[in-house]
Structure formats: structure tokens, C-alpha cells
Design a protein that fits this description.
five-stranded antiparallel β-sheet; alpha+beta; eight-stranded antiparallel β-sheet; 17 strands; globular
């Protein structure tokens, strides 16, 4: 999928995407609800390596990509299993802390960013190692650095600038900036790939609203590689991010049937884009207006669980 649709009429791309999404809607719903245990792992290929390391040739590019990928999944550690267990435990502790805070909103501030993201009523923070309904504890994505939850579809306001480029179904989007009013993206600009984003958020009624807000420290293994992987399952784990489209029901409310009443978003799409960096701060905002720091300069600020 590396730049697969670059240069193709965006209307044709949109029709293809809509047809594909409609055909796999039931599968996507089951995945989102963790109705079965699954894991996604990226395996380097020559084409992928050429896109990530265009300055290298042949096997050198592939070797460099393998090295980077192995770092992201902690296989460069002396004991990778121990490293993953420690990472899962830390992520789950962070998840529990955030759930205990019961923030009403998050406020992102940084260069080109001043965005308030209201959170769905009854929202639940999730992280790697979450126990699935069948009792298993899968590592859903490898790598996985995020702690995430569901925004309220009507309570997102302000402007946010993407901190990293995004490979959107083969089109490279750079310099993206989005302005939200009442939860909806009302203005989109980008240095490249702007039309692809505009068409994406026209996919259906919920496509221009947010379905996920995720916090990722700037010191994550993905960020430390300094590599743009051109693969969202990798790149989203390099920075805090937002997602246009569908909210995972289990993050909007413990009862999936309460998705609409909680403010969770419905859509046939779910597309992440990175907004965090070492220059971005995040505050937690309580319902009474009190504010406390959650991240400073892209890193966690530890706050005691009340």
C-alpha cells in the first residue's frame, strides 16, 4: 500500500475505499469489539523498505527496515518477553490511573495546536494487554505504545497540526492542519495530500468527527528510531494521535449498546494521524473546570491516583 494510490483520481480512490469498507463492516465491528483474539505484526518487504529508506539500495534498505522493526517490538532487548511484560504492566497501570481521573476533556497545546477534546460519557481508557471478553490478554498490535479512549463526537473544538506525515492509503499527507467546531472538522489544509484528507472525511456522516484520542510518550521506541514507517500501525505508536471516524465501542462505554448515548462516534472509517511531539503539552480537564498536567513536552507527568 506504499503510495499505491498516488497520482490516481481521488474520486476513484474514494469509491474504492467506500466499497472496501462496506464489504468488511461486520469484520471491522467484531475487531473493534474484541470478539476474537487477534494481533497485527508488520513484516518488512523490499517495496516497503524502499519507501522508508529511499537513500539505500537493495538489501541495505531491507536490512535497515528489519533493524528498525525489531527495535519497535523490543526484540533488541536482552529478554524481549520480560521487556514486553514490563511494558504491558506499565501501560495497564497508566490506563488505570487515567480511568481513575475521570477527566471530562483533554487540552492539547503546542506549535499550531490548541485543541480541546471532550471525552465520551462513561469512556474507558484502554492499552496493550487489555483482557478480551474471552478472558485472554492478547498483544493486539505489535508495536503498541498507546493508551487511548473515545472522544465525544460533538465536543471537539480548536485547531490541531499534525506532527508527522501520514501515508493515507498510498497518498503522503504532509503539513496537515485541521480546525474543529462542535466536534466536526470544518477546515482542512495540508502542504500535500489535502484533497485525499478532504475526501476521507466525506466518506460518511461520522467521518469528519473523531473516534479516538491516544496518548503516546515522545520517548517511545518508535519515536526514538526517527523513522517514518509509512505504515500507520507503526507510525501511530510514535506519537500521541487522533483518529477520524469510528469509536471503538469498548472505549466509549463498557456497554457497547450505549455508544450513541455516551457520545461515541459511528463511521465506516477509522484513520489515525499523529499530533504529539516533544513540543506538545496535554492537560486533563475535570467537569468542574479544574486542570492538571497529563503530559509535558511529550512525556508523562505522573499524577497520583485518587
Amino acid at each position: 500500500m506504499i503510495h499505491l494510490f498516488e497520482g490516481i483520481n481521488p474520486e476513484r480512490v474514494q469509491r474504492f475505499q467506500q466499497g472496501t469498507l462496506a464489504g468488511r463492516a461486520d469484520f471491522a465491528r467484531r475487531v473493534a469489539n474484541f470478539e476474537f483474539v487477534w494481533s497485527a505484526i508488520g513484516v518488512p518487504t523490499a517495496a516497503w523498505a524502499r519507501a522508508v529508506f529511499p537513500q539505500l539500495e537493495g538489501d541495505a534498505a531491507l536490512d535497515a527496515l528489519w533493524t528498525a522493526v525489531l527495535r519497535t517490538v523490543r526484540l533488541d532487548q536482552p529478554d524481549p518477553v520480560k521487556a514486553w511484560n514490563e511494558h504491558v504492566d506499565a501501560a495497564q497501570a497508566r490506563r488505570e490511573n487515567l480511568n481513575a481521573r475521570r477527566y471530562d476533556a483533554l487540552h492539547f497545546r503546542g506549535p499550531g495546536t490548541d485543541l480541546r477534546v471532550g471525552l465520551a460519557e462513561g469512556h474507558q481508557w484502554l492499552a496493550v494487554g487489555q483482557t478480551a471478553p474471552n478472558g485472554r490478554r492478547p498483544l493486539v498490535n505489535m508495536p503498541s505504545e498507546e493508551v487511548f479512549t473515545a472522544p465525544h463526537r460533538d465536543r471537539v473544538d480548536g485547531v490541531v497540526s499534525a506532527a508527522r506525515s501520514l501515508n493515507l492509503q498510498g497518498t503522503l499527507v504532509e503539513g496537515l492542519q485541521v480546525r474543529f467546531e462542535g466536534g466536526r472538522a470544518v477546515e482542512v489544509t495540508a502542504n500535500s495530500g489535502e484533497d485525499a484528507v478532504r475526501r476521507l472525511i466525506q466518506t460518511d456522516e461520522g467521518a469528519a468527527r473523531l473516534g479516538e484520542v491516544a496518548l503516546v510518550p515522545n520517548s517511545s521506541p518508535l519515536s526514538r528510531t526517527g523513522v517514518l514507517f509509512h505504515n500507520i500501525l507503526f507510525d501511530e505508536n510514535a506519537a500521541s494521535h487522533l483518529a477520524f471516524g469510528m469509536a471503538y465501542p469498548v472505549s466509549a462505554n463498557p456497554d457497547p449498546a450505549a455508544l450513541d448515548s455516551s457520545g461515541g462516534n459511528r463511521s465506516s472509517i477509522h484513520v489515525d494521524w499523529m499530533v504529539g511531539s516533544g513540543e506538545v503539552d496535554v492537560d486533563g480537564v475535570y467537569a468542574d473546570g479544574q486542570v492538571e498536567p497529563v503530559m509535558r513536552a511529550g512525556e508523562w507527568v505522573d499524577t497520583p491516583t485518587s
